[in-house]
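pasting input
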Amino acid sequence: MKLIIAYINPFKLDEIRDALSEAGVTGLSAGNIQGFGRQAGHTETYRGAEYEVTFVPKVRVEVLVDDSLAPAVISTIEETARTGSIGDGKIAVVPVEEVVRIRTGERGRDAL
Amino acid sequence: MDTGDTAWVLTSSALVLLMTPGLALFYGGMVRGKNVLAMLMKNFVAMGIVTVTWVMVGYSLAFGPSIGDAGILGDLSYFGLDGVSSDSTEIHGGTVPDLLVMVFQMMFAIITPALIAGAVAERMKFSAWVIFIAVWSIVCYAPMAHWVWAGGFVGGDLGAVDFAGGLVVHINAGVAALALVLALGPRLGWRREAIRPHALPLTVLGAGILWFGWFGFNAGSALAANGLAANAFVTTQIAAGVAAATWAIMEAVRHGKPTTLGFASGAVAGLVAITPAAGFVGPIGAIVIGIAAGVVCYLALQVKFALNFDDSLDVVAVHLVGGIIGALLVGVFADASINGVDGLLYGEPAQLARQAASIGIAIGYSFVVSYALAMVLKTTIGLRVSEAEERGGLDLALHDEQSYAFVE
C-alpha cells in the first residue's frame, strides 16, 4: 500500500478529485496549507505598509491506495495538476505499513 | 417640548450607541486572530463603564451649572441624574427632554474612550484599560465637554465651534491614544514581523455601521428634526464619500492598487473631519474637508514609522489628524446663513484663529491628563500583559476564550 501526497494549486482540487474518481480512487483527504518552493511569494499592502508574504497557499491531497493502483494515481495527479508554470507542486509516494478502518476493524487492503 | 425633535434625538441616540459595536468590528478585523476578542471587548466594555460614570458624575461635571461661573467644570448638582427632567427646560434651551440630551451625550462619552482602544491593541491589560477609561471619562472627557458644549470657556469666551465633537471626541481621543502608546511601548515584533489584519470583512462591516451611526452623531447634534439636521446629514454623507474615494485614489497612485481597508479607512477619516463642521458648512466645504481628510490622514499614516511609536490601528492618523483638519477648516468654510457663524471665506478670519486656539487647548489638556493617568497605572498595576501572554494572544490571556477554535 502507498500513501500518495500531492502538493497542488488550490484551484486544481476539484479537477483532480474528479480525475482520481475516474481512475478508481474511492477516497482522499485534502487540506489548506502554506509553503514555499521555487515560486516567489507576493506583496500585501495595509494602510500604506507593505509586507512581503513568502508563504504561498497550496492544497495538500493525501490518497491511500493499493500498490497496483499507485502508478495510475500518480500519473493522473501529475497530468491534471500540471499547468507548466512555477508552483504546480510536487507528488511524494510513501510506503504504508498498515491501514485500519476504524468502524469495522478491517486491516490492510480490506481497509482501503 | 417638540415630539418630532424628541423622536429624532431618541433615534439618534440609538444610532450613536450602535457606533461602538461598529467600531469594535472595525478594529477587530485589523488585529491578529489571537487578539480579536480582546479588541472587541475593549470597545464593548465602554458601554458598561461609561454608562455608570456618566450617570453618576460625568453628565453633571459636563453639563451641570459651571462652578463659580468660570466655565471650567460643572458642579455635582446632577449627581446620579438627580433632578434631570424628563421635560425640556431652559438648561439645554431646546425642544427635547433634558433626560434625552443626557442619554444622547452619554453615547458620545461611551464611544470616545472606545476610539482609543485601537492604539493600544494587542498588548494592553484589560484591568488597566478598564480603570483608564473609567477615570478618563471623568477627568478628561467631561471637562472638555463642559468647555466646548456647556457654555464653558472654549465654546463661550473663546468662541470656538465644534458641532458634534472634533475637539471633544476625536482630537481628545487621538491625543489620549498617543499618550497611552508612548507609555505602553510597541507590540513585540513591531516593524520586524508581519503583523497583518486577520479579517478585513469585519473591518468593512464595522466601517459601514460607523458610517450609518454617524448620521445620528452629526445630524442628531442639531438636537432637532430640522433644516440644520438635514444640513449636517448631507455634509456628513458628502465628506465620507469624498474622503473614501480620495484615500483610495492616493493608494492607487502610490501603490498601484486601491484597497478595501483604505476605502473604509478613508470613509472614517472623512466622517471624523466633518464632525466639528457638519452643522456649520455647506456642500462645498464638505467636499474640501473630505478631500483634505483623504489626503492628509493617508499621508499621516507614515508619522508613526518616522517617529517610531506603535499606534497599532492608526488612531492618531485618523482621529487626531482628522479632528484637527475638521476643527480648522470649519473656521474657513463656516457660513453664517447655515448656523450663525462665519469663517475665513465669509469674512471672519478671527474664527480660524479661535479654532486653532481651541485645538491647542484640547491637545494640551488631553495629553497631560492622559499621559499622567497612563503613567500612574504603569507604575502601579502595570499597563501591559506579560511577554508570554502577548505571544500566545490576548483572547486566551485576558478572557479565557478563543474566536476561531480548532475543533468544531
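fyi Chain B touches chain A through 17 residues (CB under 8 Å).
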